[in-house]
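Worked example 3 (structure in, sequence out).
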């Protein structure tokens, strides 16, 4: 009985740790952009396409200059963490990548183990050589060289970049006045089949939210029983752009746990009663 009680208390403690809070995601996503006054920003943003399928046959070049299709990175039960950035971005992309590296360092799953990391440059003029340089810098910052095969920095032609961006719902534009690409800070978790499962807005991602989004994208084929129980009690809220408590499932889980506790208690009670009766008969 003590073991069951401890397990239940542990679950609710972990569950509380997954409570969602913080600033609105769209406000966070537009960091670095809101102070600009260029009209090009009207063309920038995110139009969510949850459940949408990306074209895995789209061709790009990897950091080695090899021709690849996106399907190369969608294998087995492994979800994909996708970024649309550009490697010579003077501000936002570097801030975004730096913040993500801190998240990945604090995360207990390694890149290339439970998920693949794929970055695609939105600048058609950028080269595989630049992609390799960027990959090397962040792999070194990550500090886990054994994860090298899980990192992929791609470049490509404008038509293929635009096709991918349109499928994701990522709106960006060239700002001639600022001489840079205007875009928001967001990252995307995709299923192993290439369907869009989650949008992460802003520079930073809480490790617990990253974990939940990856578990859900993999159809619960990664993670543990606690992850599954937490996701059972949470649902993606399209208004808040994050996970929120789902009262109906919480009540269902509470009812199930109550029945389990009651069944264990009654079993132990009846067993004790039977032993008492046997001893009485022996006397």
């Amino acid at each position: 009985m003590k073991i069951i009680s401890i397990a239940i208390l542990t679950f609710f403690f972990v569950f509380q740790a997954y409570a969602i809070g913080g600033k609105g995601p769209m406000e966070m996503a537009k960091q670095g952009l809101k102070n600009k006054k260029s009209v090009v920003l009207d063309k920038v943003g995110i139009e969510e396409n949850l459940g949408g399928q990306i074209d895995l046959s789209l061709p790009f070049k990897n950091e080695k200059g090899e021709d690849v299709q996106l399907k190369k990175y969608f294998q087995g039960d492994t979800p994909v963490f996708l970024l649309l950035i550009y490697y010579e971005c003077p501000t936002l992309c570097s801030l975004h990548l730096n913040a993500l590296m801190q998240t990945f360092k604090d995360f207990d799953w390694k890149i290339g183990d439970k998920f693949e990391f794929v970055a695609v440059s939105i600048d058609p003029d950028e080269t595989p050589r630049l992609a390799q340089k960027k990959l090397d810098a962040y792999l070194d910052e990550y500090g886990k060289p054994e994860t090298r095969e899980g990192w992929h920095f791609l470049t490509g032609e404008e038509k293929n970049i635009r096709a991918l961006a349109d499928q994701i719902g990522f709106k960006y534009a060239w700002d001639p006045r600022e001489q840079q690409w205007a875009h928001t800070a967001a990252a995307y978790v995709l299923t192993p089949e290439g369907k869009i499962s989650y949008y992460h807005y802003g520079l930073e991602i809480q490790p617990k939210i990253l974990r939940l989004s990856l578990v859900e994208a993999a159809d619960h084929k990664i993670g543990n029983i606690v992850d599954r129980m937490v996701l059972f009690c949470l649902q993606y809220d399209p208004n808040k752009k994050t996970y929120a408590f789902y009262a109906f499932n919480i009540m269902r889980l509470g009812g199930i746990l109550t029945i389990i506790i009651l069944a264990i208690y009654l079993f132990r009670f009846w067993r004790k009663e039977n032993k008492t009766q046997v001893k009485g008969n022996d006397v």
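Notes: Residues 141 and 273 are 64 Å apart (CA to CA). The helical segments are 2-17, 25-29, 92-106, 128-142, 158-168, 207-217, 225-232, 247-282.
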